[in-house]
Specification:
The complex is a heterodimer of chains A (611) and B (220). Chain A is α/β, with parallel strands linked by helices and 611 residues long. Chain A contains 20 helices and 19 strands. In chain A, the strands form six sheets. A six-stranded mixed beta sheet of chain A has the order 2-1-3-4-5-6, with helices on one face. In chain A, strands 15-16-17-18 form a four-stranded parallel beta sheet. Chain A has a three-stranded parallel beta sheet with strand order 10-13-14. Classes of the chains: A alpha/beta (611), B alpha+beta (220).
């Protein structure tokens, strides 16, 4: 794109710096044999905050004959400006049109970003459906956690990548480069790519449905296609490449700090949590590796905050050595350290006070459910006692802002469980105000947030019905009343429309693809943003294809019913998920797998897990 | 030790906002291992201030910052180290080491000199400017108390125009400043859009000529 044209576009949009690139540490290669446009289908500030795409950006740019440039979903003002000017969407690094890349790769982090994929494709003149694309069109691929049920977007994708990308993506680029060099056509290229562990080629399979519309199976239509696609796993995370020199954005982004990834996977086994199952087994980085990464990244970015990231950072086995070491290392430089998803225990108490001495951060805890019974159902191994002790410690250490996250609509939930949320909030409030005034901050800010439960594939709750919209709204009102009068409490909740859609798309089959595209055509964009969400666009899209969202969201599925993601192998076995489901109903807690193997992968992949 | 520096903001970073620039310099100082002094109090922050904000989309060779260091260092070494780590598009041009009691930048600045390039200027732009300047220029201005109508004519001290290029000498002090976009809006009316002209700040003047050049009577 020429600069006059770019200027004209940029002068029309609210935040031009979303599209200008040129940030410190961004990687600009003039040319390469294989060009990848790495696209995060949300706005810059969100996409730039995502660690996974940053790893892939670094990893793919490290490949010798490849270059990788960033693309984010254009905000509606930019989308309109591009359409009016008749200009194609372009990459941040070299402002190349997206269609001129060999591969367009989407990161799928959230189902409600899917419509933005269409914005990117349309503004690039790339046909939506894989079957409509020509030999000259780029290969459209995707990966990320949502790919664990790729079926709702499968018809739009040439290739789906399952699992960790650190090794898989470079391998994909190597195979692709060889195909390109040999002048392979698209089918031969896809065949070659399908041999890579973790690669799924949707067009090699066709869905079969019963007369009543039930999904039966995905039938292979390509003799060489594997029956099941095994998720790719990086065995040695400590040796795996990380994000290199982090790009330092000009704009303030959502997670505007350095992140070191302590470990991947989680041993807790919370039964609602998809991430807890699809990233198994736990793989840790060594403390020395993390310290070195933190030092290097602070030096080359100038950031003043480091976040110790993972699904449950409090579980890092070397945490009690890491936290003081990293605090000591960076305190002289006034670089603060934050620990999200924190489980406070008494050993950490002193370090907590020091963390605050550098910079104050809020405290967020996620009991998820209001009663011990329901917490046992979801296997959230946290007790009321833990929680009250944690917040009391924090209050005495000078905190006065606490966020408590809960879910409503969990399987087996009753009124008592909702009242339990209010009860817990009351006890936290009392814990604060019972501390003498001179030993705590003045006022408590206790935010109680209730999201609606969305059953997800690859969890023990994958067969569960979601609460209906009406029921969720009723429960929200009930809870709001129950929380009234508790000192310092603020209740945060959301209209359940988005959760319902999320439930449909998360467990959908290929028939949902048409609905997604129709919703986009009806104007759906940035659906996770309240200001953009258009319920009617979705309702009309479901009506247009005569699809009842309740069939996907609110129906209890039989455990013997074929599931649209049965052809995927995420390592955790279906038998284990069934067993965990039974345990949930019995309110039986399953131990943290650091305390002993629960056999989640069966015999098949025993060597994957080093715990 | 207190350092005042003039820096430029060029083409490639003209969309970086003032708020982003504050953060950007803090990070650049950290990368360059400049020993910054921090404020006291509960949430210490570097003691760093800027003369004035530049509108998003403008370029400039007259941006001024004022920063306090925890220990002394050679001012040229400061500039060298910071320039070694600033992102492309920003560059420190001159540095001064000043006394603690030296007034703030916003207290000494008095006026600024801009060059504007007007794209596809209307043929009668020169007489239009003359006409506009012959009377009060009443514009709608957003203030804390809502929209207000103000006369910006007194803040425009001098101008030159030829062939699509305009120079403007306008007020820029602690009490107020000539808003170029409001002036161009009044001049170009419906033809005005952010894409119809470009603005570059050449200089910021002071009243007494200390650090910043002394404000001239008229543009040369």
């Amino acid at each position: 794109m020429n600069s006059a044209c770019l200027d004209a576009l940029l002068s029309q949009v609210e935040k031009p710096a979303r599209y200008t690139g040129g940030e410190l540490n961004s990687i600009i290669k003039e040319d390469a044999f294989v060009k990848v446009a790495l696209c995060f289908p949300d706005v810059y500030e969100i996409g730039m905050s995502h660690l996974g795409t940053r790893i892939l950006y670094n990893v793919m740019n490290a490949c010798e004959d490849a270059l990788c440039e960033r693309v984010y979903a254009p905000w509606p003002d930019m989308e309109n400006a591009l359409k009016q000017a008749g200009e194609p969407l372009f990459s941040l690094e070299t402002k190349r049109p997206i269609a001129s890349f060999d591969i367009v790769a989407f990161s799928l982090l959230y189902e409600m970003c899917y419509t933005n994929i269409f914005t990117v494709l349309e503004l690039s003149g790339i046909p939506f459906y894989a079957k409509d694309r020509r030999e000259s069109d780029p290969l459209v691929i995707c990966g990320g956690p949502c790919a664990c049920n790729p079926e709702p977007i499968a018809p739009f994708m040439d290739v789906v990548l399952l699992g960790d990308g650190e090794e898989m993506n470079p391998e994909l680029l190597r195979v692709f480069a060889a195909c390109k060099r040999n002048g392979c056509d698209k089918r031969d290229t896809l065949l070659a790519l399908s041999k890579i562990e973790g690669v799924y080629i949707p067009s090699f399979y066709a869905p079969q449905y019963a007369e009543n519309g039930d999904f039966i199976r995905l039938q292979s239509v390509e003799p060489q296609a594997p029956d099941r696609i095994l998720r790719r796993v990086v065995r040695d995370l400590d040796a795996a490449p990380y994000i290199g020199k982090p790009i330092v954005p000009y704009l303030s982004i959502v997670h505007d700090r350095i992140a070191v990834e302590l470990f991947r996977g989680c041993t807790r086994g919370c039964r609602f949590c998809q991430a807890g199952f699809i990233y198994r087994p736990v793989r840790e980085r060594k403390r020395e590796t993390l310290m070195q990464q933190a030092k290097d990244m602070v030096a080359c970015t100038g950031y003043d905050e480091i976040s110790l990231l993972s699904l449950s950072s409090g579980d890092y086995s070397d945490l009690h050595a890491l936290v003081p070491e990293i605090l000591d290392e960076f305190a002289p430089q006034r670089v603060s350290v934050s620990l999200p998803s924190l489980r406070i225990d008494s050993l950490l108490k002193n370090d907590l006070e020091r963390m605050q001495a550098v910079r104050k951060a809020g405290l967020t805890l996620a009991p998820e459910a209001g009663t011990q019974r329901l917490r046992d159902v979801i296997n959230k191994g946290v007790t009321e006692e833990d929680l009250i002790r944690s917040v009391t410690d924090a209050f005495e250490a000078g905190w006065n802002g606490v966020k408590l996250y809960f879910m409503i609509g969990l399987p087996t939930e009753t009124e008592e469980d909702l009242l339990g949320i209010a009860d817990l909030a009351r006890k936290v409030s009392q814990a604060f105000y019972s501390i003498p005034k001179d030993r705590r901050e003045k006022g408590l800010r206790l935010s109680v947030s209730a999201s609606s439960f969305v059953p997800k594939p690859w969890t023990p709750f994958q067969w569960e019905p979601q609460d209906t919209k009406e029921s969720i709204i009723k429960k929200q009102q009930f809870l709001r009343n129950a929380l009234k009068g508790i000192r310092g409490v603020e209740f945060a909740y959301h209209a359940p429309n988005i959760s319902v859609l999320e439930a449909v798309v998360a467990r959908g089959d290929r028939r949902i693809a048409d609905v997604l595209l129709q919703a986009y055509r009806n104007g759906a964009r940035f659906d996770s943003w309240d200001e953009h969400f258009k319920l009617k666009a979705w309702e009309d899209a479901f009506a247009a294809y005569d699809i009842d969202p309740a069939y996907y969201a609110n129906r209890r599925r039989d455990t013997e019913e074929p599931l649209p993601w049965d052809h995927i192998d995420m390592l955790v076995s279906k038998a284990y998920l069934k067993r965990e489901r039974e345990n949930a109903y019995a309110a039986t807690v399953t131990r943290d797998c650091r305390k002993g193997c629960n056999g989640c992968m069966g015999e098949r992949y025993a060597d994957y897990c080093k715990i | 030790m207190r350092i005042i520096a003039r820096f430029e903001k060029t083409e490639s970073v003209r969309f970086v906002s003032h708020l982003d620039i504050q953060r950007l310099f803090q990070r650049a100082f950290r990368r360059a291992q400049i020993p910054l002094a921090y404020s006291q109090g509960f949430n210490p922050h570097p003691i760093l201030s800027f003369a004035t904000a530049l509108s998003v989309g403008y370029t400039s060779e007259a941006e001024w910052l004022d920063v306090k260091l925890a220990s002394d260092m050679d001012k040229d070494d400061f500039a060298r180290r910071v320039n070694g780590t600033l992102p492309e598009g920003f560059r420190i041009i001159e540095v001064f080491s000043v006394d603690e009691r030296f007034p703030s930048l916003s207290a000494i600045m008095a006026a600024a000199d801009y060059t504007l390039q007007v794209f596809d200027p209307p043929a009668d732009l020169a007489p239009r400017i003359e006409t506009l300047l012959s009377a009060p220029i009443m514009v709608e201005k957003r203030t804390k108390g809502g929209m207000r109508t103000v006369d910006i004519r007194p803040m425009l001290y001098d101008y030159r125009y030829s062939n699509g290029f305009m120079r403007i000498l306008g007020c820029l002090d602690a009490k107020g400043s000539l808003n170029i976009d409001l002036f161009m809006g009044a001049l170009l009316k419906q033809d005005a859009s952010a894409a119809s002209y470009r603005v570059h700040r050449n200089r910021i003047f002071s009243n007494d000529g200390v650090l910043m050049p002394k404000m001239p009577e008229r543009l040369s």
